[in-house]
Amino acid sequence: MDLDYAQASAFYEQMLLIRRFEEQSGRLYMAGKIRGFLHLYIGQEAVAVGAMSALRSDDYIITHYRDHGHALARGMDPNIVMAELLGKATGSSGGKGGSMHLFDVSRGLMGGHAIVGAHLPIAVGLALSAKYKGEDRIAVCFFGDGAVNQGEFHEALNMASLWELPVLFFLENNLYGMGTHVEKAHAGGRDIFHGADAYRMPALQVDGMDIVDVREGTMRAVERIRSQGGPVLLEAMTYRFVGHSVQDPEAYRDSAEVDEYRERDPLVTFKDRCMKQGLISEDEAARIEDSVNDAVAEATRFAEESQEPSPESLYDNVIDASSTE
Amino acid sequence: MDLDYAQASAFYEQMLLIRRFEEQSGRLYMAGKIRGFLHLYIGQEAVAVGAMSALRSDDYIITHYRDHGHALARGMDPNIVMAELLGKATGSSGGKGGSMHLFDVSRGLMGGHAIVGAHLPIAVGLALSAKYKGEDRIAVCFFGDGAVNQGEFHEALNMASLWELPVLFFLENNLYGMGTHVEKAHAGGRDIFHGADAYRMPALQVDGMDIVDVREGTMRAVERIRSQGGPVLLEAMTYRFVGHSVQDPEAYRDSAEVDEYRERDPLVTFKDRCMKQGLISEDEAARIEDSVNDAVAEATRFAEESQEPSPESLYDNVIDASSTE
Amino acid sequence: MPEMNLRDAVSMGLREALDADDRVFILGEDIGEFKGPYAVTNGFLEQYGAERIIDSPISEAAMVGAGIGSALGGLRPIIEIMTINFMLLAMDQVVNHAAKLRYMSNGQIKVPMVIRTVTGGGGQLGATHSQSLEVWFATVPGLTVVAPSDPYDALGLIRSSIEDDDPVIFAEHALLYRIKGEVPDRHYTVPLGMAKVKRHGTDITLVAYSRMVHVALEAAEVLAERGVDAEVVDLRTLRPLDKETVVDSVRRTGKAVVVEEFWRTGGLAAEVASTIQEEAFDYLDGPVGRVGGVEVPAPYNGTLEAAALPNAARVVKYIEDLYGI
Amino acid sequence: MPEMNLRDAVSMGLREALDADDRVFILGEDIGEFKGPYAVTNGFLEQYGAERIIDSPISEAAMVGAGIGSALGGLRPIIEIMTINFMLLAMDQVVNHAAKLRYMSNGQIKVPMVIRTVTGGGGQLGATHSQSLEVWFATVPGLTVVAPSDPYDALGLIRSSIEDDDPVIFAEHALLYRIKGEVPDRHYTVPLGMAKVKRHGTDITLVAYSRMVHVALEAAEVLAERGVDAEVVDLRTLRPLDKETVVDSVRRTGKAVVVEEFWRTGGLAAEVASTIQEEAFDYLDGPVGRVGGVEVPAPYNGTLEAAALPNAARVVKYIEDLYGI
Ligand SMILES: Cc1ncc(C[n+]2csc(CCOP(=O)(O)OP(=O)(O)O)c2C)c(N)n1
Ligand SMILES: Cc1ncc(C[n+]2csc(CCOP(=O)(O)OP(=O)(O)O)c2C)c(N)n1
Ligand SMILES: [Mg+2]
Ligand SMILES: [Mg+2]
Fold first, then answer.
1. To the nearest whole angstrom, how far is the Cα of D62 from the nearest Cα of chain A?
2. Predicted TM-score of the model (pTM)
């Protein structure tokens, strides 16, 4: 694993930030301060952080409702994200979007989308705009194994390949779509990336529990897209340690399976390797732990102390300069 | 080609019936007696006739709007079909369905459907009912190359394979979806059947211009479905000799291509082979020509002389016993 | 009479149907191993088995299409679409197929299918998950649309819906599952197409359905304190509309306000208001009023969302302004 | 002023936009090599090339999704959906994404996209191909919905629609393409959201849009012969509704009938009628009337289809019965 000190610390810090941020989000949900649906990224941290580390700042990112990890890994301010989760005026959408709809256009993060599979065609359009304008930025679209069975997955992959558009279809296969195991939903079985052949699209699979493997796989995919133009399907095999959403009794899987994957916790394994190789010292690890805890505490404070959106904001941004009755 | 005399004559007669019926439909459209959309099956006759010859009378058939060939090959009365095309009370839907919506439930023909790709999931449901009830009938779903790019194609093939349902997905690849060539619409290219791998579904390709090849391929597919349960994708490579619908200037293809395929007219080639092998005599061919012409003339007479639907029928069959204001 | 909540009333109706008729099965996302997204089918998989309680891939269009096909094959499918928002992915199957096949086949086939789905806002689920699209289905010939407001109606109406030989959209409000009410032990049904006066009054008629019935009843209590005696009509079935019950009430009261959750412009209230003034114009003391959702996508923030939805206070204030009472 | 037909007016508006702004492109089925299903884009491929005139696979959902994405990427997409019936396959992209992204992102992104589509019945295309679904889109916050009745408005409105920074549904009636009208050489636009009085009168107001404007004008001529002087208001934009123009007219005439092609129950006429009685109750001589489509799926047979659609005779008869004039 050829990482330098700075990278090792940075990756570990970003993964830990997501982990602690999500743990805190769960607590705030239980406290009734976050409402609606809340989908945590715990267990999948290596995917977002590894992937983002291989992208350019001008690339487009689009993802589904399980989006906190992608937002934070892309460098979005935890304060702004937490404020959105609490529905505050200081949130990224002024409290109107919520957990499932995080946008940060300044970082190319085009949302946070809550309809399973529907953002894949939108990613195709982002890539179309890049190619149309002659830009060499790419569109990276994160989605889950459950989304693969939506018709729009098929339509989007066909279009992207047909028109040789620069899209990285980034599949986070955590084995479940809500309570349905991938093998009970996808006729192609557990290893979905083979399906790309139908579109004559190159595809690869990486270990989503290993940030280095994710990073290297993403680099290969991105390199191929920028050099040759067409799309790539990248499948990261991963797992969520917690329920689908915060109120999921998890009747559909036995705790043994969860424990087994927790054994491979992407943070623990990465930290251990880095320490063995002397890339992260005890002190550094402690510093990271502190700074992450401070960041999450600060995000919580910021969000809780922020103002509620103004009543008038209800009417803003329906359409341009519109305020409907 | 191991056909007996009776089969050879029957197949030729059915194909010729479709050919002449369609030629007459075109004329009646030009005469303003058929309105709306009219999609002719000329050039593809070997597919419907060869396929139907390998099916059981209790199997379900469902197809798209280019459905005259399937209806006639399934044994539907040409009088009833022509009457429907003319919108008469004696038509299969009392004039309310038209050319694109031919139903004959007594023969398991569950329509004629005009939304591209939408009848594939319906075929899955028909097969689901058969399996659910423990019947060994299968559902045969005819569709075109253009339908393959609809999301519902993907959803339907995934479900059918996942649940091991007895569906024969019968793809008539005539190279064009309206004016769009298959290679400009399908990233997988011209030979679509390879795409079945993504669903772990067996697939095969036959020469749709050769009724015997279609028949034998269908037999293999059906045999596999009845014995092993799961679905099969069968692709028949074919070609329509006429426009997409009756008013298509065909700007998108050059006449040379059309001529080339007309060289391989499935009726002419089959008739020649049968005559060489002594399966059809000159007299028999003449008899067939006459009886087909009579049948089409009779269908035309029947349809033209039939009554218009009653004004009250407008309100029938919206829902059970309903007549809405 | 035993008390039960609306969730249990629907569950009970479903169990009865599964017990009484082998042709009845349920297909939906996460209805089995996950035990139902809203727990309505909790325990069903264990009791009825995987042949009849089918967990589906996330493929709404194919789910409805497969339901239609299975109905054509003689089954009595109950399709659960997790929320009515996701019906947007199955719109073509519902509107162009389920609703039209009986008509296009002139009665050769019918589609005895119930689509159960969850509707409404108020849960801070954001813009894509908080709509009341039953209003659109209520405009489609060939569909019946039901939306109960209490356990008694829910059980009586699910029974009638499953018995019906045509497609029924059965919309359960997410915020009403816990609402309790008395349900007789003796078997009863609530016929489709019949509204019900839920509160008798003489001064003004409030028309509503689903959750808004409770808002209307609350408003009626406030009005009562002011000596205004309001009658509350619960539509229960949105298509066909029970005009008689509504118009009779207005003829007695001379005043009417329709309350609904859907956006005010183009909602069902417009139809009801238009019908009232058409059929009771000379009985009206003033215009028929409408209180609907504010014309914005549903915001996540709880205060903003509440401001966008009708409540008793808004209804009372509106009535003051409209009629000066 | 030069005369041109509505098809040429729309074509002209599209060419202007393609000429003036490189960010404008058109994506649709068979708009290029086939020269446009309704010939509106005839010659475009040759003139503007395949990068800007993109023939799409039959994937309506992905077409709209790709349009949205390209708009997020800074382009100005014009998506052609062959007919509004096929929008049922793209409903989620239009309603949950195009219409809501500006709001959910609180203005971080916008979707300057025009969806051009063909609406209406009367062509004997059968139940699935003859609907007027623009009525549904007119209920969705975030969308603008336009439906011109003549060449002047068509050109003026397509110009405004393409200039608009939010999604616009532009519905062209299949039976109006050949209608001729004068179109000034000088550049002009017709602003969105403004109705227009197409015939001045004093005795009764007829409100309509698209093809029904011509039915209303015809009816007005018949009424004129009887000494009844009807005013005809063409809504032109269905969302936002120009209530002022409609209500002003009714305040002058005291009578109003709304004519539309959509099924009578729950159509736009219900909204217009409700609004009129809300805002002009004291000016009304009687109830506001509605003439809409008969509540059946569109039948193929020409006589039946005609009986299901409003025409001048039906409108006049209805007015006789309603107002005794
Ligand atoms: C069209 C649609 N259908 C159903 C849902 C409800 N739903 C939300 S998330 C989800 C599971 C998605 O699983 P997957 O794609 O694997 O992503 P993961 O949650 O595992 O990250 C479902 C069914 C939805 N939001 N949209
Ligand atoms: C959803 C939908 N989109 C578009 C159309 C218009 N349309 C009718 S047939 C057709 C082409 C279909 O081609 P294919 O599936 O290859 O069948 P073929 O006509 O070649 O037999 C199109 C685009 C439609 N009917 N439905
Ligand atoms: Mg998953
Ligand atoms: Mg084809």
1. 5
2. 0.98
